[in-house]
Amino acid sequence: MIDFSLSENQKRLLDLARDFAAGEIKPVAIEFDRESTYPEAILKKAHELGFLYTNIPKPYGGSGMTYLEHYLVTEALNYECCAIGQMIGIAHLASGAILLGGTEEQKKKFIGSMTESYRSACFCLTEPEAGSDAGVMQTTAEKKGDRYIINGSKCYITNGQYADLLCLFATMDRSLGTRGICCFAVPRNTRGIRVGRIEDKMGHRALNVVELFFENLEVGPDNLIGKEGEGFKLAMMALDRGRVNIAAICTGIAQKALDESIQRAKTRVQFGQPIGNHQGVQFMLADMNALIMASRAMYLQVGWMLDQGLRCTTEGALAKFFATDAVMKITTDAVQILGGSGYMRGAVVEKLMRDAKLTQIFEGTNQINRMVAGRGIMGGASKLF
Ligand SMILES: Cc1cc2nc3c(=O)[nH]c(=O)nc-3n(C[C@H](O)[C@H](O)[C@H](O)COP(=O)(O)OP(=O)(O)OC[C@H]3O[C@@H](n4cnc5c(N)ncnc54)[C@H](O)[C@@H]3O)c2cc1C
User: Fold this and answer.
1) Are 294 and 251 in a shared domain?
2) What is the pLDDT of residues 65-80, one digit of tens each?
3) Is 204 within the bounds of a domain?
């Protein structure tokens, strides 16, 4: 019943992703981190190989991978640099709500026009006063006839500067709480969208993250995804899938940290022998490897569940906080194993440790994901067999 073997096509896909990461991302990862550069040339090459829209079904111009394949490829693409890897995979979260709640016509129109040429998207939920508590958002959608006039702002929006398509959440009635929130698909060229501050970040430095302002942004009924008031539900469903994605990303970062640590443990000699011969170092390597195996198994399980059409809110939250806490520990231990050389700017593991921190914060902090998982467990979820 349980089978970890890959088909020939899946092996080829994974090799392609690994080769791409090694050939295109590895040589520039440290430089892009230092300069905080938008990786446009890499994104264009990734597009040519079909890596920009891996999860999007073929009828809408995507590569049509299963969730399992998408998450495996995601781990491979994020191995050399998760910031560049995430810019490649940005459409996953941003297109999620539209794919889940849009009509056939809307999917063809919004997702199809994004995929037909090299275009990207962003997911606009968080606001200055609505972070973990996203339901209290202040961006409003006022109805005038059959039009919606949107005013407000969003913060920390990944790819907000470059996205051609915005998946935007706004409330029609704040007194209704989450049930007043709507989801809109908004093409970038719609009048009334302004980019604010471009964030300067601790890690994930090649990830474009900005503030966005909406000033009398006018959209029509064709832009409304799902029904009025269904936006929050769609956001949470998209995040269920996004959180598994984060677990796959973390597994890639963690594997890189372990590989760097093993290499150093074999070559650095102290007390007359490679440091990897000392039991204290071996214990760290063993703990790292165990956490990676568990993180990978968790994202594979949830990917499989999604491919079976099963709900994964609880399991996605469990995978997210487990893999992100794991990668934080693993990258911290990798710096420990490399000693002083790992602490210096330009060291691969120093970058990995800074990159790892964000994963415990975005797509729901780990406190929020523990709350989501805890609620689900109390309700009887997470019993697979
Ligand atoms: C680099 C980056 C990229 C991002 N990209 C996007 C994006 O593309 N789109 C988007 O919409 N958002 C994005 N975000 C926003 C991200 O999802 C939020 O930062 C996150 O949800 C947390 O919100 P906050 O930062 O306001 O923290 P707060 O909500 O202020 O939380 C602060 C602390 O309080 C804790 N806390 C809050 N409530 C509770 C509670 N009930 N119980 C226990 N602890 C609690 C939190 O866990 C956290 O530790 C991004 C953020 C960053 C940093």
Assistant:
1) yes
2) 999 999 999 999 999 9
3) yes
